[in-house]
Structure formats: structure tokens, C-alpha cells
């Protein structure tokens, strides 16, 4: 599948007011970088906070996990989050990048990072249960 087809599938899968607009997707080996735009009409901005809406940390983590599961063979269950740090708030109207770095070994993990230029918004590491082995019974 070429990159424009993969981007179209990603946009189709994650197109609602629950998701940021996906402007671009760049993948190589074990890494994907997704260009995002935070629209002011997003569902998750309602009530968080009335005077200055922000994207909550739990939402950022949810987006990273769901996009990682879609793009990589992570397994379905995130069992823990390591090294979670929130540096700057994400506001409506911002463009940013979500970088996902996939790794396997004793665990399956995806490091995520929301950033724009030299600004780091948040980062962490999602650790997943390994995908269930298929049986030929």
C-alpha cells in the first residue's frame, strides 16, 4: 500500500469530532509521524476548560494509543504508561506532530511525542500486552 492510500485509510478510520484532523502521515521502518490540526469544534474540548479549552492529557494518551494500535502490531490492550510528561498545553487551532516509535522485545511498546518545531507538548511510552499468538488447531 502506498503512503497516500495509507493516509486516506487513516483519515477514514479517525474522522470525527473525537479526533484531530490528520493532515499528513510519514512512516518508515518502526516510526510514524502524523501531522495533526486541533480544530475548535472537537468533542474533547467541551468543558475542559470553559474560558480556555485545552486537549486533556488523557485524550492525548488515548489518541496516541489508538493510532499506535492501528499503525503497528501492538496488541489490543495497553497495560501501562511509562515516563508520561506534559510540558505545554495543546490548544484549539494548533498544528502539531505526533511521533510514534514502535519497539518489540520483552514487551511491545510505542513511545509517543506531541511536538511542533522545538516545542514539546507531551511524551510517554505505552506498553502493550503482546498480540495473542494464533494457533493452527
Please summarize what this structure is:
By secondary structure, this protein is α+β, with helices and mostly antiparallel strands. It is built from two helices and six strands, in the order αββαββββ.
Structure characterization notes:
It is globular, with a radius of gyration of 15 Å. 25% of the residues are buried. A hairpin with a 4-residue loop joins strand 4 and strand 5. It is an alpha+beta fold and 137 residues long. It contains 2 helices and 6 strands, in the order αββαββββ. A 6-stranded antiparallel beta sheet has the order 1-2-4-5-6-3. The longest helix has 15 residues.
Count every beta strand, where a strand is a DSSP E run of 2 or more residues.
6
**Total helical segments:** 2
Task: Give the distance, in angstroms, between the N- and C-terminal Cα atoms.
Answer: 31 Å
Decide which structural class fits the backbone: alpha+beta
Helix content: 10-25%
Fraction of residues in β-strands: 35-45%
Overall mean pLDDT score?
91
Return residue spans where pLDDT drops below 50 for at least 5 consecutive residues.
Answer: none
**Gyration radius, rounded:** 15 Å
Amino acid at each position: 500500500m502506498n503512503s497516500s492510500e495509507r493516509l486516506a485509510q487513516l483519515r477514514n478510520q479517525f474522522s470525527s469530532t473525537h479526533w484531530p484532523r490528520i493532515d499528513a502521515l510519514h512512516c518508515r521502518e518502526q516510526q510514524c509521524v502524523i501531522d495533526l490540526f486541533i480544530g475548535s469544534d472537537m468533542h474533547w474540548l467541551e468543558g475542559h476548560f470553559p474560558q480556555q479549552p485545552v486537549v486533556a492529557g488523557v485524550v492525548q494518551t488515548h489518541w496516541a494509543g489508538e493510532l499506535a494500535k492501528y499503525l503497528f502490531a501492538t496488541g489490543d490492550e495497553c497495560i501501562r504508561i511509562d515516563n508520561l510528561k506534559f510540558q505545554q498545553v495543546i490548544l484549539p487551532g494548533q498544528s502539531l506532530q505526533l511521533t510514534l516509535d514502535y519497539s518489540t522485545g520483552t514487551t511491545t511498546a510505542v513511545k509517543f511525542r506531541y511536538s511542533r518545531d522545538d516545542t514539546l507538548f507531551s511524551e510517554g511510552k505505552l506498553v502493550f500486552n503482546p498480540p495473542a499468538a494464533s494457533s493452527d488447531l
